[in-house]
């Protein structure tokens, strides 16, 4: 496979950095082609602004949505955006690796998404009608590709459990899994999570490395999270609400995953 590894940690000697290095070595040893976007090393510009459309006249009013589309369709995007989009086209699988900061991804990685996911590239595609509401949530320009998160977490696993004070990790990662990845079409694999990172020692690293290695070895065979496709019949269009006969009376994020045997 062609694999794009997007890494977001400011310290290359960190646990996250060491696991990134191991992952690249493991994947290449298995015969995969790997490209790495190390955002801090690249000094990635995280802010979406008027300079991302190189054809925007000085002083012109900037529209994040409209100028993103104009720059993408007219070929006037900033060069770093176009380069990352080309990597995504090339990749069969995307790995996003980052520490969990304030219940989400670091700002530099969010900025990568904001800028690379241009209007016309990752959103704003497909027809809108009474039966089809754009190519998204299981469809889109990145459909047919896989994606997985590798997340290092300072807290205990129990803190992120079903009754943990921080909330279930599945819920915290839902905006990334379902929104950032499933929205433009990725099949999203279950995440690889490493907890209590501040308490780990060098002696723990071999077992952490091998646990990640087992996940990497199974990238092509691991079943993705069974999110419901927006245009697959489970949602009313254009309301985009789950049909009342599906998970009747239930609410919450879990209803957007088809986990029941009857479904």
From TrEMBL:
Enzyme class, first EC level, given as a word: oxidoreductase
Entry's EC annotation: 1.6.99.-
Gene Ontology MF term list: NAD(P)H dehydrogenase (quinone) activity
Domain Flavodoxin-like fold: 1-211
Keywords recorded for this protein, A-Z: Oxidoreductase
Recorded GO CC terms: cytosol
Source superkingdom: Bacteria
Family under the similarity heading: Belongs to the NAD(P)H dehydrogenase (quinone) family.
The protein's name: NAD(P)H oxidoreductase YRKL @ Putative NADPH-quinone reductase (Modulator of drug activity B) @ Flavodoxin 2
Lineage, broadest ranks: Bacteria, Pseudomonadati, Pseudomonadota, Betaproteobacteria, Burkholderiales
């Amino acid at each position: 496979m062609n694999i794009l590894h997007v890494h977001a940690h400011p310290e290359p000697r960190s646990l996250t950095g060491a696991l990134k290095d191991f992952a690249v070595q493991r994947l290449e040893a298995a015969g995969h082609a790997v490209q790495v976007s190390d955002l801090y090393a690249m000094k990635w510009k995280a802010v979406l602004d008027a300079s991302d459309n190189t054809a925007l006249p000085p002083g012109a009013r900037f529209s994040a949505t409209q100028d993103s589309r104009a720059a993408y369709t007219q070929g006037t995007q900033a060069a770093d955006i176009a380069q990352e989009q080309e990597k995504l086209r090339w990749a069969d699988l995307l790995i996003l690796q980052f520490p969990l900061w304030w219940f989400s991804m670091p700002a530099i990685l969010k900025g990568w998404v904001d800028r690379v996911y241009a209007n016309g590239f990752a959103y704003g595609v497909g027809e809108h009608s009474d039966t089809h509401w754009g190519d998204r949530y299981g469809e889109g320009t990145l459909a047919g590709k896989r994606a997985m998160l590798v997340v290092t977490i300072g807290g205990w696993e129990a803190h992120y459990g079903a009754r943990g004070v921080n909330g279930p990790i599945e819920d915290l990662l839902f905006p990334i899994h379902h929104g950032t990845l499933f929205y433009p079409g990725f099949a999203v694999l279950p995440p690889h999570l490493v907890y209590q990172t501040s308490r780990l020692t060098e002696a723990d690293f071999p077992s952490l490395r091998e646990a990640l290695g087992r996940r990497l070895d199974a990238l092509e065979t691991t079943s993705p999270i069974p999110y419901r496709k927006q245009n697959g019949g489970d949602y009313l269009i254009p309301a985009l609400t789950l049909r009342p006969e599906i998970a009747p009376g239930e609410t919450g994020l879990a209803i957007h995953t088809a986990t029941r045997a009857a479904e």
